[in-house]
């Protein structure tokens, strides 16, 4: 019998019986468990896998906890044409940190000629290291770095504040230590198609993988965890729907072997559908890539992100990216809109009995605030509904 999670947000009721298939998986009796250990570990050098139990040791039970990676301050803002004041970005990050979100993608050490909006990522990292950002949970801040220049720019700031942050290495060395210091991690970003790689990184996939190998190696020497994106895995704006899942698996394997700790599968264009999400994940499983090394990064351009999330959950994936207010888009993916909204993800996941640890009310307020600051519509249907329901209750109280 499934154990029901404590639903953390007051708006949510008990799961609908039709969700029991997902709940069974959420509580460790589904596909995800048997398959997470079934294949050889593709990764040779990553810090994290070296610390994990061997194939013969019992694996930790898969529970109903889902990790949401908030990408709003990076993916959500990078496409904005008007430069957003640093104070607004910092306010956004600090507010998100108070909601229970444990990982926030805060900036990007890329060429300012390519993505001017991310130019003040140095100041953001500096602020994070100088200030003790309040949070109910230990925080990880992630920054993109496509090459050694980007990593060196990030490192220059880290070196100025050597005692202000944790790394994956320090956390693993002392897992029980309670530290209020944030962990810093790095993200590289490959593409599944040559055309997107050229548009986004001005080089072919092979060259980009060479850069990422250098970045991963240098980041590991510093003890930093590395997330490795693969963009356009379910559709490319230049090459169309039929992105080869085997190519995605090859690139993922290569980056895991370089030492990446996580593969973030980017549906950059939102062209992904449920059957193709399933096909992709099955292909990665056949290639020996474990569910716990995969996260899903769905943009919601065609409104399929939650359906695809359900497919990935059924498959056993437990890490998902989202962006408050549904902000976002990639400057090199014409027409692609925002990431799936964090508010929608929290509501959806918790309605299935999953536990995100995120305060839905608080994140809905942030979505309303930041979209207003940017002069954009709030793209989170759940965020608008939460605020609407609350204002009706307030009117009732006054009446
Ligand atoms: P390039 O023009 O071929 O590079 O760009 P270059 O080596 O000729 O350098 C050009 C200039 O940039 C030089 O400066 C370099 O020093 C400088 P100059 O001599 O002209 O003054 N430069 C840098 N400056 C700061 N930081 C750096 C850096 N590297 C070089 N790291 C490059 C190649 C990779 C730099 C460029 O193409 C680039 O920055 N691309 C990034 C594009 C980007 O950020 N895209 C959005 C993120 S990916 C995304 O959103 C997808 C994702 O969300 C997942 C999904 O949805 O699928 C992650
Ligand atoms: Mg993206």
UniProtKB/TrEMBL annotation:
SUPFAM superfamilies linked to this entry: Aldolase
Domain Pyruvate carboxyltransferase span(s) in chain numbering: 66-364
Region (Disordered): 46-65
EC number(s) reported in the record: 4.1.3.4
Pathway: Metabolic intermediate metabolism; (S)-3-hydroxy-3-methylglutaryl-CoA degradation; acetoacetate from (S)-3-hydroxy-3-methylglutaryl-CoA: step 1/1
Catalytic function, reaction form: (3S)-3-hydroxy-3-methylglutaryl-CoA = acetoacetate + acetyl-CoA
Key words of the record: Lyase, Metal-binding
InterPro entries referenced in this protein's UniProt entry, alphabetically: Aldolase_TIM (IPR013785), HMGL (IPR043594), PYR_CT (IPR000891)
GO molecular function (one): metal ion binding
Record carries keyword Lipid metabolism: no
GO biological process per UniProt: ketone body biosynthetic process; L-leucine catabolic process
Superkingdom of this protein's organism: Eukaryota
Sequence similarity: Belongs to the HMG-CoA lyase family.
Protein name as annotated: hydroxymethylglutaryl-CoA lyase
Annotated source species: Cercophora scortea
Phylogenetic placement of the source organism: Eukaryota, Fungi, Dikarya, Ascomycota, Pezizomycotina
């Amino acid at each position: 019998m499934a154990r029901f999670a404590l639903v953390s947000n007051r708006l949510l009721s008990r799961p609908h019986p039709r969700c029991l298939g997902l709940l069974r998986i959420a509580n460790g009796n589904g596909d995800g468990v048997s398959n997470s250990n079934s294949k050889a570990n593709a990764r040779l050098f990553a810090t994290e896998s070296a610390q994990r139990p061997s194939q013969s040791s019992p694996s930790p039970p898969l529970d109903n906890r889902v990790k949401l990676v908030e990408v709003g301050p990076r993916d959500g803002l990078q496409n904005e044409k008007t430069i957003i004041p640093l104070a607004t970005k910092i306010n956004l990050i600090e507010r998100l940190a108070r909601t229970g979100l444990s990982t926030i993608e805060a900036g990007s050490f890329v060429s300012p000629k390519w993505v001017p909006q991310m130019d003040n990522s140095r100041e953001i990292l500096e602020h994070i290291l100088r200030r003790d950002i309040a949070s109910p949970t230990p925080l990880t801040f992630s920054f993109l770095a496509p090459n050694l220049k980007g990593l060196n720019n990030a490192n220059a700031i880290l070196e100025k504040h050597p005692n202000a942050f944790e790394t994956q290495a320090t956390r693993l060395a002392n897992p029980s230590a309670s530290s209020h210091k944030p962990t810093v991690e790095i993200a590289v970003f490959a593409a599944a198609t040559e055309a997107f790689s050229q548009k986004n990184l001005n080089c072919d996939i092979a060259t980009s993988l060479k850069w990422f190998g250098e970045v991963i190696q240098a980041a590991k020497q510093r003890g930093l965890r590395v997330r490795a994106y693969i963009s356009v895995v379910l559709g490319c704006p230049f090459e169309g729907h039929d992105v080869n899942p085997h190519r995605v698996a090859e690139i993922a394997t290569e980056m895991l072997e370089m030492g990446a700790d996580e593969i973030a599968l980017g549906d950059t264009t939102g062209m992904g559908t449920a059957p193709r999400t399933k096909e992709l994940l099955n292909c990665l499983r056949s290639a020996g890539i474990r569910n716990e090394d995969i996260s899903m990064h769905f943009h919601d351009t065609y409104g399929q992100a939650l359906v695809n999330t359900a497919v990935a959950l059924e498959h056993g994936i437990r890490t998902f990216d989202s962006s408050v207010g549904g902000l976002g888009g990639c400057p090199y993916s014409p027409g692609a809109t925002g990431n799936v909204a964090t508010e929608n993800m929290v509501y959806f996941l918790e309605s299935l009995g999953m536990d995100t640890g995120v305060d839905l009310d608080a994140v809905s307020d942030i979505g309303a605030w930041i979209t207003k600051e940017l002069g954009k519509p709030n793209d989170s249907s759940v965020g608008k509904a939460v605020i609407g329901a609350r204002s009706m209750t307030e009117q009732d109280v006054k009446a």
